[in-house]
Fold:
Amino acid sequence: MKISKRLAFFLVSFFFIFILLIGGTSSSTSVTDTEEGQNLPEAVLRWKEKVTKEAVKNEISEAVPYLLGIIMVETGGNSEKYPDIMQCSESQGRQPNSITTPDESIEVGVKYFADMWKGHREYEILNIVQAYNFGGDFLSHSGKSYSLESAIQFSKNQANGQKVTYTNPVAVRLGYDYRYAYGNMFYSQIVKQYISSDSSNTGTGRNSEIAKIASDELAEGIHEGGEKYWRWYGFNSRVEWCATFVSYVAEKANVKMDRFAYCPTGINNFKANNQWQNGGVEPRSGAIIFFDWDGDGISDHVGIVEKFENNTVHTIEGNSGDRIAKRTYEKSSPFILGYGMP
Structure:
């Protein structure tokens, strides 16, 4: 009887350890977080070596994360179902899916991307990504800086205003339930979700939602003049719009924070809610940073902390030169008045 109990205990223990090992293995292979910070499935990452080789050959090695993002969006890397994994047959004047091997698809797709970018090196790479979907003619329309508005207008013109229902989560988050019936005006936005950029790497972990939304707004375009933000707030003509930008982003990120259009009002709100910290501290991602340019103790400007790294505060600011821009400041900068911590 004792032998049977020991044997049963041994079998149960062995089974438990086996389950743990199997469970650990399966959970580590579904999605990989690469050194670029891209969350991509193995079905896509298995093509990274080939993509990198072709990108280096075409002198666009910095585009590798975007090219992998394109593969993710086009086919999910499923070469068994879609041998033309970059869906680039038509870019060569061929019939759809006429490329029959993934290696050829990568060679053709990377070269197509590289040829467009080399001819427009001063253009933002998201414009090249969008042109991968629309075709090179888009670059004659877009200008150097990428904006979602430009992609929408181009698609609308090409489709003669015809709309189709479209419920991709990225489009819905941007406030749309349709696209125009030419290409995909959200293509760059969809690819971008698989790109790390600086937003996946902060001194204390991943960026907050408010910093992510601010980064998304900049990815849409620089929004020169800020009309989107001051009109959203309720103004009928232009105002200094740094605070309305912060308020817009906070509301879109579902951050509990009182709207404000005047920097001192924002500071008073944070102080009233015990959410204020004076300058000189290490801010967290998503903190609202207030500046005093002339040293009179009254805030002149406000932005959003993207991250704190190497004693440097990285920000995203509206109305910085009348546009959205990324800036950096030393932690001890005398211009930093303090932080609101919603």
Summary: The two ends are 65 Å apart (CA to CA). The chain has a mean pLDDT of 85. The first helix runs from residue 2 to 27. The longest strand covers residues 301-309.
